[in-house]
Amino acid sequence: MSLPPGFDWARNAFYFSSLPAAAAFTAVSAVFLAAIVYNAFFRPVRRSVYYFLIGWAALRLVAFILRVVALIGTNGTSLGLVVTAMVFSSIGYLPLVKVFVRGVLICIHNINPNFPYSRIDRVLNIVYLVAVALIIAYLNLYLPNLPAAITSSEQTMRDAAYWILALVSIIPTLAVIRFLLFNPRFSQFSWVLLIQGLLLVLKIAFTLYKNYNGGANDEGYFYAFTIAPEFVFMLFYLLPSILADPIAEFDHTDPNKVSTDTA
After folding, report:
1. How many CB atoms are closer than 10 A to CB 190?
2. What is the rounded CA–CA span in Å between residue 259 and residue 60?
3. Helices 228-235 and 19-42 meet at what angle, rounded to 10?
4. Alpha helices of the chain — where are they, by DSSP H?
5. What are the tens digits of pLDDT across the range 144-183?
6. Beta pairing partners, 258
7. What does the alpha-carbon distance between residue 139 and residue 46 come to, in Å, rounded to a whole number?
């Protein structure tokens, strides 16, 4: 099927519709980025975690800037612009998964000092890179060939990437539920992690639903189930004292001490 000249990819293929909403979230992303940078360098937090949060905010800001540009005039006819916006939008989820899982691993490590936190964290870093590579490859192969149907190899890459993200969101969330049931010592922080885990599960569940069922293309669903969970997740990091213990690195020199080093 051939497309008419001047086909608007942004509005007609990817369902970008509201310029005011995109502009508003561009502004909100800029505010979050500024707040996270401030917390990272001027407040007593674990900076290694906040670097990932800065990455999230930067990716979200770029994605929304590109979305704004695509919705201005006839810019939506540029497939390259829209594909780039979709790539930035799709990989913005990864830093939040990384931070959440790290928080859960540290909680487990605090309960059991023999838990191989560092080793598992290194393995998961490879898993995250594989997921990112699969998402980028899928988007760059599938989107430029629209309106052709998705191929089996493209679908395999898409499904593998998003199921990886689903598992690394669901399994740690179940671990947090176990904390709440059996380790009241960590209940205050585990409640925060549980909320964050459920937000990530909601986001990835919506993505999987769209992948397998189609529909839900109204932009309102995008903001409600893809973007809003991320920003609510990030609200906790605007008040870093709430997550001081879960994001602190374990001090291996003393099994009863959590490091407050900010380097």
Report:
1. 24
2. 31
3. 20
4. 9-12, 19-42, 47-70, 79-91, 94-111, 117-142, 152-182, 187-213, 219-221, 228-235, 244-247
5. 777 777 888 888 999 999 999 999 999 999 988 887 777 6
6. 250
7. 34
